[in-house]
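User: Let's play a game. I give you a shape written as tokens, and you guess the letters that built it. Ready? Here's round one.
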């Protein structure tokens, strides 16, 4: 869909970045300038976030993946690396299941290949009810800071404030629909066992959203795996450890370029 908002910088191997829940493509602003010196970096606002219009119906992550595929085709991309942060990783996994042949590599940045357990599903349902009753701002006020390791919050208070301001502009129905889509997604373990392309994991040791034991469990699944384990980091390594993240992503992308 040409209506999707995106940035397109640099030349070379195409790399598409997908942001997470209640975020926009701006979360990649720390990484984009450096990475675009060596690669073609495309960042998009997922439907319903930032400047991209929402999907018009109750949708699944597969529907989001189809929208992404149509958009990338419309700008002339044929094969590329897809990297998703958190919920963007869920969308990337859905994309990989549908369009594996289009991918040169898959990156999961603080994301999770497993289906939600019952407690997590129940929490997502409660979240949907909370937003209906209390609105977006009440949710965002506590949600955004919770993504960061507590020891980093003071140093990154301006970043957190900007993320809050951006997330506050999101329509409540978009947040609700994505919560439903995440709740209802299936696990990707079986798929990744047979996925032949390189897979990148960036994990935070202090990540509350994707606990360390889950991250360590999932990195053993793919055949061709590349892992960065960040100490003193929560769910937002692009802000909490940008230099380490950039260096690792560059290495992963060089590997993808050399091995496709």
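Assistant: Ready! My guess for every position:
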């Amino acid at each position: 869909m040409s209506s999707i908002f995106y940035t397109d910088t640099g030349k070379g191997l195409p790399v598409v970045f997908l942001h997470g829940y209640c975020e926009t493509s701006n979360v990649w602003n720390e990484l984009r300038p450096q990475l675009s010196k060596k690669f073609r970096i495309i960042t998009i606002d997922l439907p319903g976030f930032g400047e991209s219009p929402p999907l018009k119906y109750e949708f699944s992550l597969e529907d989001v993946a189809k929208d992404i595929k149509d958009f990338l085709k419309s700008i002339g991309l044929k094969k590329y690396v897809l990297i998703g942060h958190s919920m963007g990783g869920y969308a990337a996994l859905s994309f990989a299941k549908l369009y594996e042949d289009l991918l040169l590599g898959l990156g999961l940045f603080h994301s999770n290949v497993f289906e939600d357990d019952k407690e997590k599903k129940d929490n997502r349902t409660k979240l949907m009810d909370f937003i209906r009753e209390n609105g977006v701002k009440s949710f965002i006020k506590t949600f955004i800071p919770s993504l960061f390791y507590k020891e980093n919050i003071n140093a990154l208070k301006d970043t957190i404030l900007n993320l809050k301001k951006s997330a506050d502009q999101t329509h409540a129905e978009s947040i609700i629909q994505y919560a439903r889509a995440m709740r209802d997604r299936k696990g990707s373990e079986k798929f990744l066992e047979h996925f032949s392309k390189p897979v990148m994991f960036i994990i935070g040791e202090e990540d509350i959203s994707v606990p360390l034991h889950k991250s360590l469990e999932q990195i053993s699944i793919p055949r061709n795996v590349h892992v960065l384990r960040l100490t003193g980091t929560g769910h937002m390594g692009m802000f909490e450890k940008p230099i380490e993240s950039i260096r690792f992503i560059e290495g992963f992308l060089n590997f993808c370029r050399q091995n496709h």
